[in-house]
Amino acid sequence: MPNVLAYAEARGTTLRKAAFEAVAAARVIAAGGEVHALLVGPPGIAATAAALGRAGATRVFVSEHPAFAQYNADAARALAAERTKSGGYRAVVFASTAQGRDLAPRVAARLGAALASDVTGITVAGDEISVVHPVYSGKAIATLTVQGTPAVISVRPSTFVAAEDGRDAVVEPIQPVGDPAAGRVVVTELRTGGGAKLDVAEAPIVVSGGRGLKGPENFAIVEALAAAFGNAAVGASRAVVDAGWRGHGDQVGQTGKTVSPSLYVAIGVSGAIQHLAGMRTAKTIVAINKDKDAPIFKIADYGIVGDLFEIVPALTAAVREARKTG
Amino acid sequence: MSTDFFDIDGALTEEERAVRDSVRRFVDDRVLPVIGQCYVDGRFPRELIPEMAGLGLFGANLPEEYGCAGLNNVAYGLIMQELERGDSGIRSFASVQGALVMYPIYAFGSEAQKRHYLPKMASGEIIGCFGLTEPDYGSNPSGMITTAREQGDGSYVLNGAKMWITNGSTAQAAIIWAKTGADDKSIRGFVVPTDTKGFSAKDQKGKLSLRASDTSELVLQDVCVPKTAVLPGSGGLKSPLMCLTQARYGISWGAIGAAMACYEEALAYSKTRVMFDRPIGGFQLQQQRLADMITEITKAQLLSLHLGRLKDAGTFTPQQVSMAKRNNVDIATNIAREARRLLGANGILAEYSAMRHMENLESVYTYEGTHDIHTLILGQAVTGLNAFN
Amino acid sequence: MKIAVCLKRVPDTETRITIAPGGQSIVDAGVKFILNPYDEFAVEAALQLKQAQGGEVVAISLGPDVVQETLRTALAMGADRAIQLKTDGNPYDTIAVASALAAELKSGGYDLILLGKMAIDDYNHAMAPALGELLDVPSVSAVSKLTIADGRATAEREVEGGVEVVTFPLPAVVSADKGLNKPRLPTLPGIMAAKKKPMESKPAALGAAKVVVRTLTPPPERPAGRILGEGAGAVPELVRLLQTEAKVL
Questions:
Q1: Which partners does chain C have (≥3 C-beta pairs < 8 Å)?
Q2: Domain A205-325 CATH superfamily
Q3: What is the pTM of this model?
């Protein structure tokens, strides 16, 4: 039975949700074999490593070094490639985050391995790994066979749900490959936008606002609903981003981000094709719009027609109440 | 593409398609976001002139040696189509600058005039206007009363008035057609700097059509110009009419653009607008509207495309241009009106383009040779009999 | 500066996609193909650098002869010359394509290699880092700001919840994200000039394809949803369904 390596992404000394998702995806490939994780970070990261066992990793290799305080592309890829090869893993799995998208191709190129990017499904049949990946802005689904060992696979965030088995993993400290301080691309600054804002591409719940909100100040209603859900990010349609009400990082849609949350709430969003392309794979879609003929209602699982300025505050209160009791 | 029913694209060269695509993107990005408001405000978006010039839209079918793009006539037509897809006022600006100002300088001007004016007009540094029509002489320019009296030293003094002049109040140079003698054989063209003493331009107010366009009256009161202002190759009514033929050719394409814009808007609307529990595009009467629209657009495309190929081969005739202008503008006015109707109440809002195109096209129907005049041109062409008077 | 821009010819996002019989590819007929929008940001960045610092911009694309049209778009925007790496079809495998591009780029003496962060057909987000690795030069992905001075570069790239600011030496591979610049339209004189600029065609040295498309299928149909009601009165029902049916609350 094959073992699979998962790259556990961290920021500073905090494990990111993506780390657990990579482990979850790795379990699918391992199909009974062991899942190990690779974690790099500044001194102190090792203390978080055992938690990866919750998601199913039996062993976590940790490399602690000050030069891992920020994303260190050269050092991370050298270590990931070396570990994958020396460990004889069937595959190495990354989450397709900003970091993972940068790292996985490097590792694949370095190893001469197959690279399957941003996959939303994995099937293993004997020796063969098949993956699923949406293409053409989600208008088609590609099923791909991934050949050779090791295979390098990156998985779309919020798609593979981490289990909570509850067993701590064995943590093994390892040495980095070469000198991590000699990385050619140096992160000089990480500017986080005012507090730990959840990114739309990663949040399990996304609440988006569109032109129906009438003005940037009214986004407070959307933010209140997101806060009521607790683990929600605030998204925006292209129209309001172009109008300057919200930043481009919040934009959901063809020219913005593609998101796959468990719940997507579209408030005052008409549902143009370009927007739908960015969120149509959400598990549950709720739409609130005053126009009952708005295209968004065709794709929504649940819709409420009416004045969002009345409906959303009522929904916010109800969600708050439900979370208290639920 | 919804408006290419007969794969006209397949009959275009790669470069013609590239030209069309660039202008289309310019119109989508820069014209459409502002044009509805400009139309309501009665304002031509002059701030777009440098970008239009930078793209090479002015005099695009004139040679590279004069700072122009040197495109063939089909590409030129596609430019007009895409501009008018935006608004007839935008296309009128480019038609005047290219076909009615740069063209006469190219066709009738001295080498010195060409080298002085054409590059600056291509770059938008000098905007021009074409002064032929007069308050009492529209369809019969041969009756014009603007005069140019030659002086002892070879200079001229111009007197008269012109009306319905696009770009009149923005232009730095006016191509003025005036009689140097008694009859229309004495008509000659003059390049008149608009800051010459005695020259004035005043915008015509109260327009309910072509509102995103500057339309002016010109008054020439003892305007003195040196003999170098004459377009030496010009002589007789034939000269301005040749310019009109160039412009009319472009307009035949432009009208297709306006029709396409109206059709596409109506088609998209018909697929999403729900009434009686289904999209209105599923009702027979709306389907008939759409079927008629796409049929006429397709015919118009083929007419203008073939005309463009004949023009490039040097074998086209002004009567062929008359047929294309007459037909394409006529069907466009019908398509705009029917599109407006399909849009229902929404169709009267400036947010939708149909009614703006509908109003604009009434001017396009009337200018550059009214529909009726082109009817008589064709009548004479086929019968040999003059029904003008 | 000598700058290479790698381009891809892709279907326009507005195009309706039909899967060809056999399910291995899409039907080409009636599809409008364009220069990958993210690659446009890369071309524009290259042209701006050339305007500021002098040099040459070379456009490169891998594919059948029809990609020459896409290369000509870059030439019309202002690139100096173009190279087609010729293949029969449109290979999917990122590493295989990266190998062919790297083989061409290696001998070019480029200070900077620019491309879009992803192609809007395959959504793989992988070419730039793969190229950097094969060429053994630094690479930075999804850049929305880029400055170059004295052989060193500074860039900004969006990461979850923030912006990473990086510095790195040239030569390097950089992929462009939206916001890097506003690409210029090919001008009409530019379109005419493109026909006269050098266009070279040579066979692509593709690597072995290890990731292969087995089938393309349409996306799963979402089951029909329903409108629960009007106004704030429908909120309790929505919350109930989110708890019991959708189980997301």
A1: A, B
A2: TPP-binding domain (3.40.50.1220)
A3: 0.90
